[in-house]
Amino acid sequence: MRHIPNIISALRILLIPFLIYCVLQGEMFYTALILILSGLSDLLDGFLARRFDWVSQLGKVLDPMADKLTMITVCVLFAFTFRGFFQLFFAILVVKEIVMLALGVYFYKKGVKLKGARSFGKVATVLFYLVVIVIALIPALPRYAIYAMLAVMTVSAVIAAVLYWPDIRAYRESME
To answer: pLDDT, tens digit, for every residue of 140-151?
Structure first.
């Protein structure tokens, strides 16, 4: 039973090929459904892990890895699907997510005990999901509305990354 959150995180990773297929086929309604399923399963695995004390070091890497792989995939796909004005926002997010993913895997492999997700990271993730779901469902929104949503989403992601910096420094120092 204690592995259920990790299984859910792994299933989120397995949703990514279906997400790619839906976006490439222009099936934005199904894209939004997959993102909703991914987001809700993210909430579920976190709830189960905390509620039943099923938190594990693997889960502290696997859960954010599923988030980051999903986010990177969506950013790349949406940057190509909605050409013209998304690229800068998505490029910032992709770089941030790749760096955070690489650091998480690096510290995990070094045996560093990770703290897990923090509230500001969760807020940034929820904002990401909300914005991309809205864009998928209503791609004809006025540009200013899309820009505003993307700006809020990107700023929140950058702020979350900056707020994680003390943890990253502490992990690095614990290795010395």
So the answer is: 899 899 889 999
Stretch 49-75: mean pLDDT: 90
Q: What is the DSSP string of 108-163?
A: HHTT-------HHHHHHHHHHHHHHHHHHH-TTS-HHHHHHHHHHHHHHHHHHHHH
The residue type found at 4 is: I
Q: How many CA atoms lie within 13 A of 133 on its CB side?
A: 15
Instruction: Identify the structural domains of the chain with CATH numbers, from first to last.
Output: 4-175 (1.20.120.1760)
Q: What is the pTM of this model?
A: 0.87
Calpha distance 47→106 (Å, rounded): 26
pLDDT reading at 33 higher than 80: yes
